[in-house]
Records
---
Amino acid sequence: MSHEQHADLIKTLHECTEACNHCYDACLREDDVKMMTECIRLDRECADICSFLEQALSRGTPFATELAEVCAKICEACGNECKKHDHDHCQKCAEACFKCADECRKLAS
Amino acid sequence: MSHEQHADLIKTLHECTEACNHCYDACLREDDVKMMTECIRLDRECADICSFLEQALSRGTPFATELAEVCAKICEACGNECKKHDHDHCQKCAEACFKCADECRKLAS
Amino acid sequence: MSHEQHADLIKTLHECTEACNHCYDACLREDDVKMMTECIRLDRECADICSFLEQALSRGTPFATELAEVCAKICEACGNECKKHDHDHCQKCAEACFKCADECRKLAS
Amino acid sequence: MSHEQHADLIKTLHECTEACNHCYDACLREDDVKMMTECIRLDRECADICSFLEQALSRGTPFATELAEVCAKICEACGNECKKHDHDHCQKCAEACFKCADECRKLAS
């Protein structure tokens, strides 16, 4: 079944969703919030698509490949933005995003 | 701004989400529900991605093109399934899906 | 059917989702973004619950009353925050939120 | 921070979302799908609100209590329906739902 076949990716998507939502929350609390606007924006994009794909995979979506391809792109973009910032939440988020992008690309290819 | 630029598509996505969710609900009430399982499944896939894209466009997502491409494929698949069934809710849903697929393709290309 | 019974509220939820997502996007582009962080945060909360309730009503959810009660509270809170800011997108968003809160309360009671 | 404070509930919500989406998928594949329509419907309601609350908690929502209260009710209803069916996926889903309802009620109270 789909949810077993994709168990590793579902876990990774879950961790990436968490990391992005936490980074979003933490960025909004930073003093230098003006510098973090692109990070805030991409964190939400990334959390939303990861959560969407997680649900889709666990219900056996017939569109796993197509959704994973888009998700990989969004994770990559979010990771690249987060990587620029020294905040611990940004660095951890970048790591979660790049891991998730890699696993999504494997499914998409 | 993004939400004005995409006002027509946002409206179409909203109508497609509604049609799919209504068709999903109505299929689950049909006597021949066994025949409707693929329709139920695709209605949910389609409602969820249309609602997702609608929100993404209205918040100025940088991934409009990529998301519209996936959305077009899912709308097309849902429309093709709904078209097979004579129920009024299926025929109306097919129409909403094909219209939405067309508009998504325009954005994606 | 549920989606006809709740047609007016579904439309209002859709408009509130749009207004909140647009306000979120616009707040992130403002020079005084530091002043807008609570607005950004509540815009997302409100857009997400309104979009959720819109989908739930259109699929005939058995939990319309309970969800509408929560949605009313979130719309109210978002409206109160937006009302504080002079930006046109905030004032328009406050108006959409208060209208939506009112209609949700009617369903919830 | 919110995502640490609620780490256990976030994990439980994630597991409940998975169980509900898997049960939904499996119900649609059953021969006796006509008997499973209420289960299919509630699985989706429950997966969607659990996924919503999971995201909300991980972004530090100010509405944790109110959302957890609604989520507890929906988990309870889904668990009660799943419990009626002997399918392994239904029994496992019921268990996940009741556990999640309990934890949500703790947060709500």
---
Amino acid sequence: MLRVLTRLPRLGRGLVGARWPAAARTIVPAESLALGRRHLGLASPETQVNVLPRPSEGHPHLLAADQSDSATLTLEWSTGQITTLDLAWAFHQCRCSTCVQAGSGQRQRYPPDNALQHNEELQAVRWQPQQGHVELDVARPTPTGLQVIHTVVLPEDALARSLRATQVLADTRRTLTPLNLVEPANLAVHRYTDVVQGDTPQLFAWLDDMANKGAALLVDAPAGDPDARVVDLAARISQPMPTIYGATFDVVATENPINIAYSSVALDLHQDLVYYESTPGLQFLHCADFHETIEGGESLLMDGLAVAARLRDQDPDAYHLLQQVPMTFEKVHYDRALPAHLVAQRPIITADPESGEPLELVWAPPFEGALPFLEPGLCRRYFDAYAALGMVIRESTDLLIEHRLLPNETLCFNNRRMLHGRRSFVLHEGHIRFLKGVYVNIDEFVSRHTSLSQLLGLSLPTARYGHGVAPMW
Amino acid sequence: MLRVLTRLPRLGRGLVGARWPAAARTIVPAESLALGRRHLGLASPETQVNVLPRPSEGHPHLLAADQSDSATLTLEWSTGQITTLDLAWAFHQCRCSTCVQAGSGQRQRYPPDNALQHNEELQAVRWQPQQGHVELDVARPTPTGLQVIHTVVLPEDALARSLRATQVLADTRRTLTPLNLVEPANLAVHRYTDVVQGDTPQLFAWLDDMANKGAALLVDAPAGDPDARVVDLAARISQPMPTIYGATFDVVATENPINIAYSSVALDLHQDLVYYESTPGLQFLHCADFHETIEGGESLLMDGLAVAARLRDQDPDAYHLLQQVPMTFEKVHYDRALPAHLVAQRPIITADPESGEPLELVWAPPFEGALPFLEPGLCRRYFDAYAALGMVIRESTDLLIEHRLLPNETLCFNNRRMLHGRRSFVLHEGHIRFLKGVYVNIDEFVSRHTSLSQLLGLSLPTARYGHGVAPMW
């Protein structure tokens, strides 16, 4: 008996700001397999090079592909899973050299040209283990009988990615276990030169710590131009992500700061630049100077997803309300070289609408801005929920990571997941505390982490990146 | 009688990818005003400089602020509107110099420190026209009676921004009229040097055309380094937005292209880089060389929102389904200098869940990627809807803007709203077609357009930017 239970990917309420729709699909191992494989012995069509460099460790392998009826086929996987595919799906996903440009991997057939007319039939399904792909002959009726109009080519690795995509969407269901959370006492440490000049495994180890633990500390950077230090780091992933603060920025106390960070006051835990549609992903803060006589100024980090999970446990109503009512975040500041007027509306908490697991926390009180007028009753409840979250953050001292940066150290963290801050400090004349900062785009970080994982032959990563589940299929 | 109808901002189904929650709030002019203003004559607290440089033309003015009861106050506007504010709202939005840092405009009080205890009372409400702000004395009971714990300062312009925010959210309801659509026969033309070296009104005119018409053509750029041409343009807004293709990119036919654009084939209408969380906003394509003997290669543009509106009218079911089932967009390409593995899932159409108006169209068939497995029945309907949209695009020739770029011309368009493409061309030996391209971040474009509009004393813009209504309050 073959059972494949499917559900429509649901775009749930409250998912504004997250791009991972909730979906659930249960794939039940078959008790028996449908029969009907037909080998017609046609010449194998030319195929595009495989998308991924080589199968990952633990990659499911395709065992068989069989025609079910004139419009569907089934795939049997080494994991015991059975997948049913519709002809329309297969036709769209074809990766033959006509459908996909070999060099770029881009699709070359545009709708409506590649639309089915609903009189097509699957004429043959061939699993070609040597070539590593499944071929489907698609035929249309003509006065002289069925005629093959296209041979669809589905590489095994592309099918495995779709299998994974289906699972990744279902994985948003999984419980946030302590293993997913950052261990405060365990800030990962790497050598700066290993990351910038080292080999791929050394580079990957740093990326993987930021992906899984949310943060990493680099030590022993060579002295010299601090701008080059952070730009070189960003270049190991992609490039600096420029913002209204420039390609890099200086965190140093000044008289009339254009940002609170550029003073000596304490910075409570928060995230940076949440008024951008895509809030910067990684942040690197390189300590260029921090005189030992300066009191205070310790750097602080806290896992925002862990905080959100605590609020859910302690005050479910607050957790719910912070998903429903969006906060305004803004940088509206005209008294600067380039006036800024950036405004975003997003909920403070985004959770999986089915499991209720937190997917993203956005916490940046300094940048909360002009709110639309709210109904008075709702208003009071909303600000109570907001204060409750603030209290959880303040009281979660067990989650606090505290570190006083030494010169030539670099604090690296995922700004989408980790809250950061610093203790206030007292400057003595002639002494300075000077950090050089840079951001890296979240998509480019995920791309680098995922592709290096592939190139190293590792399993695809399963880390959360603070904006839902990372797109790793 | 005072009636203020409010509704909770609703985070509607299908809003993944859009950040503008649907909200409706009807503010009905009062027939009479509540009484109860109390002037206690306290010294005016120090206030932060106004957020916006000066009131815009048509800016609503505050006429009065009155206490309603111990927890609410009402505002009366020059437009006849009446707004009721809760104490919790006002407390959060306070912009006195204790709550907000004067230089940066950032908020300095963090929850839970600024949480109300629910025993506070409004003791006085003062509208101070000379200072341009409303003051609220907030008191708490003590053994010796009520004691003022804070004087909230609400500048008139900040209140006007919240009034506007409330309206902007409601404005997503408005009908997409032909006035909002791009007139194909009317591609706006500006001189390159007016934009790069001209005054603020000349710069603004170019930005405003891109905001309202989706595109503009620049002519008569000085010859020379094409990279400098596009970087100088981006610098008039903010800076180039770097992507996996670099800070700028060359569109020129090559042998083994890493992108279909880098060949001579036709490019059907599409958008670029939709696999980024924040798809690039503006795109500038500067024509460095395009020999007159080359046949074909004309540039094409089409308004994606107009296309989406047509699909809604012609095939409402397809329009609905394309909002419900997300498409996968990706760049998974290992055979390049920096391997790329970027994947995003988003619906092809995002519409306002209440009015059904299209807010964003994402159309990029070359970058459609590995789909999760879909239920066969749904699958067939989905790809039919997808083909129907493709047919609307193909048949909407009346919306097509076609222009053959001349050397030293620059095509500028909003990549979030406009589809672009080109006709195929035939190269003769020794002749080239070479465009230099650059992207600009959508938030930085909106920021520049909005702030220049303010600095010029114009009304705040009301354009759509292809990701819902722009955040212009």
